[in-house]
């Protein structure tokens, strides 16, 4: 691990609209509304990706995956997180902990949390 400790804070917000998929932490959650975005609009994974990139002083998710680039249309955001982890690995850093908060009144997410944690840990190459 690199000699210095880095801490990143990431946030992400997406408007919700009827008829779209709601993806959080790589999990499709049954909902009347889904997130609007260029990729899969996974706000949880985007926030964790931005936190990691921020800790590395490597720009933000938009610097790496522009919403103007058609290659990222409907892309799986877990690939973005894996990319950020590749940068961290290349610089000798490892992730020690991730803590995230999702603010939604509904749908309820409790039944999906374990799979979200597994998906994020896999993309980060760490244990749950």
Structural features, described:
The chain has 128 residues and is an alpha+beta fold. The protein contains four helices and four strands, in the order E-E-E-E-H-H-H-H. The strands form two sheets. The chain has a two-stranded antiparallel ribbon. A hairpin with a 2-residue loop joins strand 2 and strand 3. The model has no long low-confidence stretch (mean pLDDT 94).
Helix-strand string: EEEEHHHH
What is the helical fraction, as a range of percent?
Answer: 25-40%
The biggest beta sheet, please?
2 strands, antiparallel
Mean pLDDT: 94
Largest sheet, spatial ordering of strands: 1-4
Q: What is the overall shape?
A: globular
Distance between the termini: 19 Å
Structural class label? alpha+beta
- The count of DSSP E runs of length 2 or more, i.e. the number of strands, is 4
Say what oligomer this is: single chain
| % residues in beta strands | 5-15%
Low-confidence stretches: none
Number of helices: 4
Instruction: Give Rg in angstroms.
Output: 14 Å
Structural key phrases:
single chain; 128 residues; alpha+beta; two-stranded antiparallel sheet; two-stranded antiparallel ribbon; 4 helices; 4 strands; 34% helix; 9% strand; globular
Quick structural overview:
This protein is α+β, with helices and mostly antiparallel strands and 128 residues long.
């Amino acid at each position: 691990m690199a000699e210095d400790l880095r801490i990143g804070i990431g946030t992400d917000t997406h408007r919700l609209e009827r008829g779209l998929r709601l993806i959080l932490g790589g999990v499709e959650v049954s909902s009347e509304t889904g997130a609007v975005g260029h990729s899969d609009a996974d706000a949880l994974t985007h926030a964790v990706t931005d936190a990691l990139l921020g800790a590395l002083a490597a720009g933000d998710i938009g610097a790496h995956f522009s919403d103007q680039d058609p290659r990222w249309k409907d892309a799986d955001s877990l690939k973005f997180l894996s990319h950020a982890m590749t940068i961290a690995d290349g610089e000798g850093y490892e992730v020690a902990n991730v803590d995230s908060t999702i603010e939604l009144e509904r749908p309820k997410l409790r039944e999906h949390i374990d799979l979200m944690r597994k998906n994020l840990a896999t993309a980060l190459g760490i244990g749950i």
